[in-house]
Amino acid sequence: MSKIALFQAKGWEADYLKSSLIKAGFECDVYENGVDQLPEKNDYDAISVFIGPHIDKNVIDHFPNLKLITTRSTGFDHIDLAYARSKNIALGYVPYYGENTVAEFAMGLILMLSRKLYWCVDRVKRQEEFNFEGLMGTDLKGKTLGVIGAGHIGQHVIKMAKGFEMNVIAFDRFPKPDLAKEMGFEYKSIDEVLGQSDFITIHLFYSPETHHFINTENIKKIKKGAFLINTARGPLVEAKALVMALKEGILAGAGLDVIEEEDIMKDERGFWLNQKTDQGASNLQTVLMNDILMDMPNVVITPHNAFNTKEAITRILDSDIENINGFFQSKTVKYPIK
Predict the structure, then answer these.
(1) Which one of the listed residues 72, 233, 238, 260 is annotated catalytic?
(2) What span, in angstroms and rounded, lies between the C-alpha atoms of 164 and 117?
(3) Fewest beta carbons less than 10 Å away: which of 28, 45, 158, 163?
(4) What pTM, to 2 d.p., does this model score?
């Protein structure tokens, strides 16, 4: 009987995964914490993880019987793929689960910024004032939305934006002219998207090649007064560049569901208490930039929550179960990391 360890799983999600895997004939243990707190038991044949603590050499070597690592996420930059492959460990992920889910959240952030919804609610609920002075917003109709990454999520955003009668332009490394014609948008270069958009939403896949895709140089090319939305991955946008653009008025505001070094931000106090002199200065700078962003009045930050609906999580769990079942039944991961 193959043994599976589920990390960062709790509540109904843990029950759903565990019961399904036990029915399929696996022995299964659940750990609410991530792999930064490794269990004494280490004879697992597979581990299922979520984004967060890095699955590095130390973690992989802790499990000598490990044959499979699955991540319940689309991104897999938290796994040392090269080392896992050197140990002949199979790798699985969840390529599609929440195209509409994340797109809906991105549109929610666009609406929050364009109509100042957060500030409207804050005025009534926290300040107990019922007036609209200083809360004038802007229509979406007729505005230009720039979509960076017109894949599955980006295409859902485009559909929604067309419903608001927005003009849509998009940058994608693999443009599909027929798709653009069918959906009514136009492909542009990244500089054109930055320079022509009133709202910019990022839906790129994160990799070393896309690290700091928006940075201190090209952020200056953004149309003055535009709004930036990021529901993809924090390191796609350089925190320092974002602060600069907001302070200098290049950006009128930002809606961020992800930020650089967000794992540190989850436990910032612990980070400072455990700070070592050999730790990179870039981490320190990013933490400071994030603190500035959180205090800015024209920035909305949410806690990496765009994926978080019952329907999307169920799709994630089902894909994870399929990856595990497929590997141990036929040595084929349904959704392999390539």
Answers:
(1) 233
(2) 17
(3) 163
(4) 0.86
